[in-house]
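Bug #77: duplicate submission created two jobs. Keeping one. Sequence:
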Amino acid sequence: MPPGLCLYVGDDERDIIAGRAAGMRTVAANYGYLGVHADTQAWGADAIIDSPLELLQWLPKA
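Kept job's structure:
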């Protein structure tokens, strides 16, 4: 599958950087192993989700 059709979901800024470098759309998970001072807004992801279920809106309908 081409990278442009993939989503890279991560809970750290380095995940968003890696996803962009791979040519993927990125989603910042506003939960998980976030540090106390993590600012997901500043990471530049295409989207931010607050729960795993919110990821469903970013996946194609079957």
